[in-house]
């Protein structure tokens, strides 16, 4: 959606700036020597972005040099500092995903004193060493003791409710994705923003641009995207199909064309793109909500088969099972094993982290055996082993981006998962068909599990990750 079209919904956006926290990720090389990187990294590094003409509706507070810096700390520090220096010009605050904006608020909580010192002195901290960032920030940074005192006063209160509108009082809305897995962050964003509207403007992925939200200021629960048929050739696999696409054992008749989808039904998105993807399964499950003229509109329901997600990471059941098996091997010398497990994406703290609930069985039931497992730090090593077994996107988020916290294993007492089954059956589940859910989110179930926790353990170090090893996966 062209920026100036926003004036139909929010007037005066050409009179101020957007405080957007934008970041590049590390590049990798494929075995064939091709550069591999996320689509937004490609865009930010492109000539199209770096030499973009002036557009009064699309002015950022963040210098391009800060956006292009691969060091997450230096990039965030510079973008936050420039946002504070231009706080009265800010009309909208945003990131790509909702989790990214919470990371920015957490960064402010941790570093406001250093930021205030820089503002008061008119000099950038030596911690930011990138010369292009230092040059760009120097053009804005002048001694301003009044601003420093104001920011310090707001941040030192210990009350972070409505902090966005307190520091950036002219903010009209948040520009963040809060659909799908990001919906879990809505209450926290409402707390920090004082209830500002949250605009979800577009639906896209690295493979293709899919559609637009023609009512961007609607409630997040009502967001629907209108598919743009000129972006690719779109087909839809009715959800509940056998998991294949034509050419892989399924007749073409299973696919539904764009014009033939039915309101209320769910489909998995399949695309053929100009770049050469042929009937590629994106992995998104969509529900048809209506039509705009002849173009169908879809609500994003979820990623297919994804159990855990904090940010851009997507861990499915097979990956989680592999990670549990890898970690539980460390218990064998202690004659212990994992009887049952489930998981939860804990986003109450920033950054969020994976929580894995384990019920253990010790073949040697003596207290000394259990004490040895705890005393020797085995469970902490199990946490790290799980992280090492997860995919490269997760590990990059842990190591390079800091957008995911250390994985946690919570050991529950014996019989907990039987209690979990009893609870499910009491709510109508069939005892013959009951299977332990590999991911849980309902508050009553989490309360049950947490009330049975006997010990909690965190990964003692980040997992191994490098751009080189990511390319070879």
What does it look like?
- With 473 residues, this protein is of the alpha+beta class.
- The chain has three domains: 3-199, no CATH class; 222-303, no CATH class; 307-471, no CATH class.
- The protein has 16 helices and 20 strands.
- The protein has helices spanning 39-44, 47-50, 64-68, 72-85, 98-121, 131-138, 145-155, 163-167, 186-193, 317-328, 367-375, 378-389, 392-401, 416-426, 443-451, 467-471; strands spanning 17-20, 28-29, 35-36, 90-97, 173-177, 198-199, 202-204, 209-212, 225-227, 233-238, 256-257, 266-272, 280-292, 295-303, 306-308, 315-316, 336-346, 353-362, 408-412, 453-458.
- The strands form five sheets. The chain has an eight-stranded antiparallel β-sheet with strand order 7-8-9-14-13-12-10-11, with no helix packed on it. Strands 1-4-5-6 form a four-stranded parallel β-sheet.
- Helix 4 (72-85) crosses helix 5, helix 5 (98-121) crosses helix 7 and helix 5 (98-121) packs parallel to helix 9 (186-193).
- The longest helix has 24 residues, at 98-121.
- The chain is globular, with a radius of gyration of 24 Å.
- GO terms for molecular function: acid-amino acid ligase activity.
- InterPro entries: GH3, GH3_C, GH3_M.
- This is Indole-3-acetic acid-amido synthetase.
- Residues 319-441 form the GH3 C-terminal domain.
- Belongs to the IAA-amido conjugating enzyme family.
């Amino acid at each position: 959606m062209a920026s100036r079209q926003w004036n139909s919904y929010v007037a005066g956006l050409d009179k101020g700036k957007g405080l957007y926290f934008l970041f590049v990720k590390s590049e990798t090389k494929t075995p064939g020597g091709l550069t591999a990187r996320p689509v937004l990294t490609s865009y930010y590094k492109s000539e199209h972005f770096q030499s973009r003409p002036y557009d009064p509706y699309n002015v950022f507070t963040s210098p391009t040099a800060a956006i292009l810096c691969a060091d997450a700390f230096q990039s965030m520090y510079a973008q936050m500092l420039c946002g504070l220096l231009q706080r009265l010009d800010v009309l909208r605050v945003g990131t790509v995903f909702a989790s990214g904006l919470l990371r920015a608020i957490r960064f402010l909580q941790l570093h406001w004193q250093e930021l205030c010192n820089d503002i008061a002195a008119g000099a950038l901290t030596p911690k930011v060493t990138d010369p292009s960032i230092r040059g760009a920030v120097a053009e804005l940074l002048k001694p301003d003791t009044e601003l420093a005192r104001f920011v310090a006063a707001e941040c030192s209160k210990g009350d972070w409710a409505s902090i966005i509108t307190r520091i950036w009082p002219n903010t009209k809305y948040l520009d963040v994705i809060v659909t799908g897995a990001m919906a879990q962050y809505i209450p926290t964003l409402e707390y920090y923003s004082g209830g500002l509207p949250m605009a979800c403007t577009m639906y896209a992925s690295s493979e293709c641009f899919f559609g637009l939200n023609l009512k961007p200021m609607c409630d997040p629960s009502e967001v629907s995207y209108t598919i743009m048929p000129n972006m690719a050739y779109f087909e839809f696999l009715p959800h509940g199909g056998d998991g294949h696409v034509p050419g892989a054992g399924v007749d073409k008749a299973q696919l539904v064309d764009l014009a033939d989808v039915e309101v209320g039904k769910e489909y998995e998105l399949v695309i053929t793109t100009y770049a050469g993807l042929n009937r590629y399964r994106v992995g998104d499950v969509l529900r048809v909500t209506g039509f705009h003229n002849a173009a169908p509109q879809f609500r994003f329901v979820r990623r297919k088969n994804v159990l855990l997600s904090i940010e851009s990471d997507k861990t499915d059941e097979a990956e989680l099972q592999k990670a549990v098996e890898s970690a539980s091997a460390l218990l064998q010398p202690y004659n212990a094993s994992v009887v049952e497990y489930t998981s939860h994406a804990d986003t109450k703290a920033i950054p969020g982290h994976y929580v894995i609930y384990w019920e253990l069985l010790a073949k040697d039931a003596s207290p000394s055996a259990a004490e040895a497992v705890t005393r020797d730090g085995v469970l902490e090593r199990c946490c790290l082993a799980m992280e090492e077994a997860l995919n490269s996107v997760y590990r990059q988020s842990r190591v390079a981006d800091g957008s995911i916290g250390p994985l946690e294993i919570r050991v529950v007492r014996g019989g907990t998962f039987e209690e979990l089954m009893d609870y499910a059956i009491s709510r109508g589940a069939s005892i013959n068909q009951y299977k332990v859910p590999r991911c849980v989110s309902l508050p009553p179930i989490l309360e049950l599990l947490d009330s049975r926790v006997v010990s909690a353990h965190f990964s003692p170090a980040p997992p191994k990750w490098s751009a080189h090893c990511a390319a070879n996966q």
